[in-house]
Amino acid sequence: MRLGIDIGGTKTAAIAMDSDGRLSDQVRMPTGWGGPAVIETAVDAVHQVAALSGIRVGDLRSIGIGIPGAVDSATGRVRHAVNLGVDDLDLGQALIERLGVTVSVENDVKAAAMGAQHLLTETGAANGFDSMAYLNLGTGLAAGIVQHGVLLRGGHGIAGEIGHIPIDPNGAVCSCGQRGCVETVASGSAIARLWPTDDALPARALFRAAASGDPEALAVQERFFEGVSAAVRILVLSTDVDAVVIGGGLSALGTPLIDGVRSALGRAAESSRFLASIALAERVHIIPLGFPAAAVGAALTGVTHG
């Protein structure tokens, strides 16, 4: 059995995977704040999943962790995970010392890319695919890329950080300091800025208003769809992935989201023979609601390193 843990800003999810790729029930718990609390959260998750699976922690083949921030996958060190209160944490070594099991640590979006690729393979949807990208639409926007079953990290670990590619020189200032980045129009934070609301979930409020025919909401929603379609074009034109799988918190918007993005890509193809020839809309998919992509990918990362 191999264990995968997705440590998020508010919730941590964990699963166990057997040698045939079958998954245990998912365990979810609140994530602690700060380095020591994050370590304790991971330790608790390991013990809970091991107990659920009926095995001792020491009998686990490996443990994989997916976590936000800048992750050195070779050492298991995590830096700048600001939404966890972590500036610099030697997470991998701390867990090895506490648990006595091989531990690997990966950025959560990159781990989720591995999880999404596993899902496509298991369901048969990946037949004929040599590569795929996982497009994470959450508070921000980023992607993970898998080519021939191998995660693409790049020379400095930033492969897939397409949210910080500027597409509008007159656009809003991005959190990265640039202006008009993809993330400023295609993310949860972008929707919250463009559609102010008292609703705890601004994206839900926007889509509800658009569904009711509100002209302003429809305009903001269309701008969002165009931003996501720009991210899809960037991924396909730079890496020629066979599939782009949309995940992250905004993927819960479901059918209206995927239909809107495909429509935006279709309109672009109508005026460009080049875009029409590469069938962008057909390459876009959405992760099933509730699938723990980052936890599954973390378990697979443990296989790679374990």
TrEMBL record:
SUPFAM superfamilies: Actin-like ATPase domain. InterPro entries: ATPase_NBD (IPR043129), ROK (IPR000600). Pfam families: ROK. Belongs to the ROK (NagC/XylR) family. This is ROK family protein. It comes from Orlajensenia leifsoniae.
